[in-house]
Amino acid sequence: MLINIFIKQVPESIDIEMDAKTHTLCRESIAYQTNPFDLFALEEGLLLKEKYGGKTRVLSMGPPQAVKALEESLSMGADDAYLLSDPLFSGADTYATSYTLSSVLKLIGIGDLILVGKQATDGDTGQVGPELAEHLKITHVTNVRSIKEIINGKKVIISKMTEKGTALLEVELPALLTITKTDKEPRTPTLRDIVQSKRKFIDIFDSKRLKIDTMKTGLKGSPTKVIKTFKPEYTSEGRIFPMSDSISLSILLKELQKKQENNVE
Amino acid sequence: MKLIRVIKGNCTGCGVCINLCQINALFLSGKTIQIKENCTSCMACVNICPVHALESQSEIYKSSIGNLKAKGIAILAEHDSGRISQIVAQLIGIAIILKKEIHEPVYAIIIGSNIENQIQELRHYDIDEILVYKNENLNLFNEDIQIDALTEIIKEKNPNIFIGGSTIFGRSVLPRIAARLSTGLTADCTNFSVRKGDKLLYQTRPAFGGNLMATIICEKRRPQMASIRQNIFQPALQQKGCNPKIIEFKQITLPKSKINFLEYLETQHCTTILSNAKIIVSGGRGLKEKKNLSLIYDLAESLGGEVGASRAIVDAGWIPYSHQIGQTGKTVNPKLYIACGISGAIQHLIGMKTSDMIVAINNDPNAPIFRIADYGIIGDLKEVIPEIISQLEKKRLNLT
Ligand SMILES: Cc1cc2nc3c(=O)[nH]c(=O)nc-3n(C[C@H](O)[C@H](O)[C@H](O)COP(=O)(O)OP(=O)(O)OC[C@H]3O[C@@H](n4cnc5c(N)ncnc54)[C@H](O)[C@@H]3O)c2cc1C
Ligand SMILES: Nc1ncnc2c1ncn2[C@@H]1O[C@H](COP(=O)(O)O)[C@@H](O)[C@H]1O
After folding, report:
1. Ligand 1 centre and the CA of A47: distance in Å?
2. Residue A255: what pLDDT?
3. Which residue range forms the structural domain that includes residue B215?
4. How many Å lie between the centroid of ligand 2 and the Cα of residue A204?
C-alpha cells in the first residue's frame, strides 16, 4: 500500500488579522498547527500501513515554515515528506491549490490511497479533496469516519457519515478519502520518535521542479478572487441573570415559547 | 506579481484607475498610465477602466469560457427518501431573488432513479424549467456517476450561475463538478448580490470559523458556482399555477460506479439532523454524569428541538460524535440554541455562534459562553432545566 496524506498548516487561533490590501492572511504574526482533521487522516494512514505494510507519504503546500507540520508528521511515523513551496503558489484558491497538489502526485505516483482532512479550519471549504480527486481522475468519498479494511489491495471498505447515519461503502482503489474526526486519537510522538525522525528528509519542490505551468498556480491560476474581507459584528446585548430572578426568567420563557410555536408551524 | 498590461493606444490618461488603486501602483507618465512593480494584479483597475486600456495577462482572465453565452440560474435539487431536501426551497428562494436582478430563467436540476414524487414537488415552485435525468442505477451513494450526469447537464445548459446546498452531498459533488468545468466555487455562502451590467455574482461567506467574512467573485469562468449555508436564506413557498417546463436528458450514458453501498450502521443514533434543526439544546461537561443527559433530551423534546453536544461529552462517550458541534464537529445555525453546562471554548463557539438566539445555562458567571449569549441564566442546570420545562408545560396548559 502506498498512501499519500495531505496536511495543511493552519493558524492555531482563528481570531486572525487580514492584510487590508491584498486580502490575504498576515502570516507573520501567528502561531501554527497542523489542521486537526489532517491529524486524524494521518493516524488512519499510519494504522493502515501497520496493518498492511507499505509506505506513508505526507505532502503539503505552503510557505517554508510548513516544514514544521511535516516534521511533526514524520515524528508520528510517516515515511516520506514533500513540501510544495514557491511564491508563485501563493494566493491560490481551492482550484489552483488542488491543481498544484495533483501535479506532484503525477510526478511521484498517486499510490493506492489518498487521504485528506474533511476541511481546513482556516478556509473552511472542504473543497480541496474532491477537486484534487478530479484532477487525478480518481474516485473520492467525503466525510469518512473510519477505514475498516483493504481487500486484496483493490478495494477499501469505509464508513461515511451522512445526515442520516453512518453508511458502509466499498470503494475501488485508487481512491481519495476525506477524513472527519475518527475514534482513533492521533498518536503523540515520543522523544525518541522525534529524535529519530530528524534523520528523515523533506523533499521540497518549487514550480520548476514540479514542471508546472505557473499560469495555473497561485493567485493567477485562481478562478475566484477575494475582493473584500470584513469582521462580522455579533451584537449580543446579553441579558444574564441568576436563576432566582423570576421576572427575567419569565421574559426568557416568553421568548422560548415564541420559538417553540414558530417551530411547530 | 504584475500581470496587468497597459494598451497604450487606448489609454486617455483620465486617471480614474489611479484614484481607485489601493496600493498606489499606478501613475501617469505623460499621457499614459504606467504600472509599478508593487502591483498585486487585484484587477480593480482593469474592471473600472472606461476605455478598456488595461488588460490582464493571466490565463484565467484572458480565457472567458462560454462567458458571453452562459445564461440562467441553476439550482441543485438534492433529495432523500422520496422527497426533495429542505435546502432546495432555500435555493429556489435565492434563485428567484437573483432572477429579479439579472432577468435570467431559473432551472432546478434533479437526477435519480425513482424521482416522480420529487419532480411533482418541484412543479409547485415558481421556476422556469426542471432539468431531469433518470437512471435506475443512481442511488444515494454513487456520487461518482452522479457527478458525471450533473456535469453533462451543466455543460449542455451552460448556466451563468449554479448553486447547491452546503450539505454533505453538495460539499462532495459541487467541488468536483467545478474542477471538471475549470471554474471557481465559493463554499458555504451566506449572502449574494449582483453587479449590474455584467451580472457578476458577489458571494459572501464566513471563513475562520465565522471570525471573518469574505466577498468573492469568479470573473471569467462560468458557471459562477457557490454552495449556500443551510437555514440562512428564506425558503420559497410552493404556489398554485406554476408550470415549469420539464426537460428530460435522455442522451446521457453513465459508466459503472466505483462506489458500492453495503449497509447502514448505527442509523438509530444519528437521526438528529442538526444542520437543519431550528432549535438545538446542547449539553456539556457541566452535566457531570451521563444520566443527566436526559435533562437535555427532555428540554429538547418539550421545545421540539434536537440534541447537540460539546466535544467534552462526546469524548467521554456519553453521546455519539454525530451530535458534536464545533470546529471538529458540525456547524449549526438554528433559530434557538440552548447551551447547558458548556463553557464556551472558541472551538465550540465556531460551530454555533451564528445561531439567531443563544441561551446559556451555566453556574459560573464568568463562563465565556455568556459573552455571546442573548439570554443567560446563572445557576445549576439540574434546577434550571426542570424549572423551564415545567413552566413551558404550564403555559401550554393555560393556552389550551
Ligand atoms: C483541535 C481542537 C478541536 C476541538 N473541537 C471541538 C468541537 O468541535 N466542539 C467542541 O465542543 N469542542 C471542541 N474542542 C474542545 C474545546 O476546546 C473544549 O474543551 C470543549 O468545548 C469543552 O466542553 P464543555 O464546555 O462541555 O466542558 P468544560 O469546558 O469543562 O465546561 C463545562 C461548563 O459547565 C459548567 N457547569 C459545571 N457544572 C454545572 C452545573 N451543575 N450547572 C450548570 N453549569 C455547570 C462549568 O461552569 C463550565 O463552564 C476542540 C479542541 C481542540 C484542541
Ligand atoms: N495547501 C495545502 N497543502 C496540503 N494539503 C492541503 C492544502 N490545502 C488543503 N489541503 C488538504 O485538503 C483538506 C481540505 O482543505 P480545504 O478544502 O481548504 O478545507 C485539508 O484538510 C488538507 O488535507
Report:
1. 29
2. 83
3. 73-248
4. 18
More confident residue, B353 or B285: B285
Could you give the count of Cα atoms lying within 13 Å of A75 in the half-sphere of its Cβ? Answer: 15
Query: Are residues B280 and B217 both part of a single domain?
Result: no
Give all domains of chain A, ordered by start, each with its CATH number. 2-216 (3.40.50.620)
Is B62 part of any domain?
no
Task: State whether B158 and B283 are in the same domain.
Answer: no
pLDDT value of residue A67? 96
Same domain, B53 and B88: no
Question: Which string of DSSP letters, residue by residue, matches A152-193?
Answer: TTTEEEEEEE-SS-EEEEEEESSEEEEE---SSPPPPPPHHH
B200 and B223 Cβ atoms separated by less than 8 Å: no
- B345 close contact with A: CB closer than 8 A: no
Task: Say how many Å lie between the first and final Cα of chain A, rounded.
Answer: 54
In a domain, B192, yes or no: yes
Does the pLDDT at position A114 exceed 90?
yes
Which residue of chain B comes nearest to A135, CA vs CA?
B179
Regarding whether B208 and B136 lie in a shared domain, the answer is: yes
| Angle at B130 (CA atoms; ends B125, B135), nearest 5 degrees | 130
Residue-wise pLDDT for B245-277, tens only, equals 999 999 999 999 999 999 998 665 544 578 788
Contact assignment for A167 to B42 by CB distance below 8 Å: no
Which CATH number is B163's domain given? Answer: 3.40.50.620
Measuring from atom 53 of ligand 1, which residue has the nearest CA?
A: B347
Q: Is the pLDDT of residue B63 over 50?
A: no
CATH number of residue B340's parent domain: 3.40.50.1220
Per-residue model confidence as pLDDT tens digits over A20-35: 566 665 555 678 899 9
* Domain-located, residue B372: yes
What is the distance in A from the centroid of ligand 2 to the CA of A119?
7
* pLDDT at residue number A18: 57
Residues 34-63 of A with CB under 8 A from B: 36-37
In a domain, B83, yes or no: yes
Domain harbouring B25, CATH code: 3.30.70.20
Model confidence pLDDT, tens digit, residues B191-247: 999 987 778 999 999 877 777 788 999 988 999 999 998 888 889 999 998 999 999
Burial of residue A254 (CB within 10 Å: 0-12, 13-18, 19+) is exposed
